[in-house]
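seq:
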Amino acid sequence: MSRLSVQQCLAAATIRQYGQRPTSDLLGVDYFHTLPADTEFPRTTKLELFLRFLGLDQPPTWVVVTVTYLDSSGSDREEVYRKRIELPFQNQPGWAVLDHAPKLMNVLLVGEGDYAIRVLRPRRRRPQYDTGSSWKGSAEWRVLSADYFAVRRA
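struct:
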């Protein structure tokens, strides 16, 4: 039985990977994105995400990355981006580590406020009861990792 987890999840302005065993430079890691005072919304931006996966007996698989605009209480207001990401595990027995740096192009910023970046994987089976979670997708998706950032005008 395979198991997959996310060990690191960071949003950055630029991520460079190089070398035989990929070494990663994470540039512009910041949880606050300040835009000029005259910025008009909605607007699009590019984010890069650094993900380190740990898999046990893991065949090639996929995850979904979403970016969600949050309301002032921290609940989901609107999903503004969704992307399926293929993970090229080698299907070998034992533990494997995979560093992946997907580019999230044309992420819609609908306004000033807080945003959540989530790495999701479909559940294998539905839970037998509702956990009462405020997140509407909790019955179908398992959250592997989350990161947050805030957009503000200068």
